[in-house]
Amino acid sequence: MLWRRRIEPFTRPLVYAFFRFKRGLTLGVRAVVTDEAGKVLLIQHTYIKGWYLPGGGVERGETAEIAVVRELAEEAGVRALSRPQLVSAHSNERLHPGDHVLVYRVEAWEACASDAAGEIHDVGWFDLADLPEETTKATRRRIAEALGGAETDPMW
Fold this sequence. Notes:
Layout: H1 3-23, E1 26-33, E2 40-45, E3 55-57, H2 64-76, E4 78-80, E5 85-91, E6 99-106, E7 109-111, E8 120-126, H3 137-147
Parallel strand pairs: 1-6
Antiparallel strand pairs: 1-3, 2-8, 4-7, 5-6
């Protein structure tokens, strides 16, 4: 599945154009989830390098809360047991014109079967002081905002 990472730089403009056409303004969600030891949940996709907070796009007819709950279960095998709490909203204009990302905190959860369908390469729980080197800068900023008290940056 790592072949997807090699072609991603070439397919990204096409995928973004498709979503822009399909959705106009796009909205994504990410989830900050910790375990009982305080470790944070991160995922690696098959099609792009780096560790990310789980999440994805909000589909038509779906609320952002429903989308983040769906994405958590699909990508990471985590079923939210409490209502996700909105932490922050960000413009992703630099990478994807017209895109916004909402970050949610999910505090109560249980493990469930995931349905990543070839999208997820790895799922891991990491100590906040020892995140993987490949954790993206934006992911690090969102974790610091949600869990470390850092001021929220409106830009992704």
